[in-house]
Design brief:
eight-stranded mixed β-sheet; FAD; alpha+beta; single chain; 10 helices; elongated; NAD(P)/FAD-dependent oxidoreductase
């Protein structure tokens, strides 16, 4: 077990791995630890947006991710077979005018391979159980009893971050009274494989997103969602909320889960030698597929700021903390608005759809939404 490092990163999800890659590219000694025996084998996040692909160029992984993913240029808000708002990415001012559909385990594998190419690795399975800051760094105690001394520590250990709690940082917010069901399914036709669809139905919201292996991700707000959704449940979601004429038939449930929506952002992203990134710093509704994207952009910016700090200038750490928190507040606001719009009271939903259809005819509405989702609203 290594006893000293420039930086200890706790958490080897996409964010922690990206921080590790960025630090290795700067030539720093980084230790990445994770409590899981191996990487996650469920898909969870499944989309990378254009701005994130731009940022990840710095890590040398963008082409690999695009090659292993599914490029989509279209997103649409729909009601049954009726298109309410078409959103195209093809004309965006970027070298990546598309979203890349790619399951989280594949993203993690690409980042891990890059980390290993650069001489890094992940220590598993080790959980951080203690943290104490010193004049020149911090000591991280693992559940094995080992202690690693580092000049800085990155908390990338998720919404229930142990490191964040040990550092005394708060992440207040709300838990919405919404239960979401997430199901990856295979179907016998009937679903478009060239767009992400957000269906606003009387029964509730449904997201339908194609994945590279030919399966589809379904996300729906469901009262008391089942812990393990089955084929009949997924079929009912599509029948009640999806396209009408095509009548897609579910042939297999690949994986499913449920979760509640939390809207939280840390009061501060820094406590001395400890920095927060990803879900340890912010969490929100999956509407718009923004969570992992925000975390990956955190990671690249933080790696740069830490490299600057290791050279003797800590000003970049405070800049990172301020700018990344501001971006998180923006993204949480966007996800909140989309979630609330999708879950207005049932009697109001036909009116909502009529208003959206009118608004969706305006080109500026389409462009604005595309830029918000892509990650660069200011362009």
């Amino acid at each position: 077990m290594q006893k000293n490092a420039d930086v200890v990163v706790v958490g080897a999800g996409p964010v922690g791995l990206a921080v590790g890659v960025g630090l290795r590219l700067h030539g720093h000694d980084v230790v990445v630890v994770d409590q899981q025996a191996e990487g996650t084998n469920t898909s969870r996040a499944c989309v990378i947006h254009p701005r994130t692909l731009e940022v990840l160029e710095q890590l040398g992984v963008t082409k690999r991710l695009v090659d292993r993913g599914l490029e989509l240029q279209d997103f649409a808000v729909r009601s049954g077979d009726r298109q309410l708002i078409p959103v195209g990415f093809a004309d965006l001012p970027t070298a990546y005018p598309f979203v890349t559909m790619i399951p989280q385990p594949v993203t993690e594998q690409v980042l891990l391979e890059r980390l290993e190419e650069l001489g890094g690795s992940v220590l598993r399975p080790y959980a951080a159980t203690g943290l104490s800051q010193t004049a020149d760094g911090a000591d991280v105690t693992l559940d094995s009893g080992d202690v690693i001394h580092a000049r800085y520590v990155v908390a990338a250990d998720g919404m229930h971050s142990t490191v964040r709690e040990l550092a005394g940082l708060r992440m207040p917010g709300n838990t919405l009274e919404l239960s979401l069901s997430l199901v990856d399914v295979r179907v016998a036709g009937g679903l478009p494989s060239d767009e992400v669809g957000l269906y606003f139905a009387a029964a509730g919201m449904l997201v339908v997103a194609p994945l590279p292996d030919g399966s589809f991700r379904l996300v729906a707000e469901v009262h008391d969602a089942p812990e393990h959704p089955d084929r009949a449940f997924a079929q009912q979601l599509l029948a009640d909320r999806g396209p009408r004429k095509a009548r897609p038939q579910v042939t297999e449930v690949v994986w499913g889960s449920r979760f509640r929506i939390h809207e939280r952002v840390a009061d501060e992203y820094r406590a001395g030698r400890v920095l927060l990134a990803g879900d340890a710093a912010h969490t929100h509704s999956p509407a718009g597929g923004q969570g992992m994207n925000l975390g990956l952009r955190d990671a690249v910016a933080l790696a740069d700021a830490l490299s600057q700090a290791l050279a003797g200038d800590e000003s970049g750490l405070d800049t990172y903390a301020a700018n990344s928190r501001a971006e998180a507040v923006r993204v949480i606001g966007l996800a909140h608005r989309l979630t609330r719009l999708a879950n207005v009271p049932r009697p109001i939903r036909p009116v909502r759809n009529a208003v959206l259809r009118l608004a969706g005819r305006v080109r500026s509405t389409q462009n604005d939404l595309a830029k918000q989702l892509a990650g660069f609203p200011e362009r």
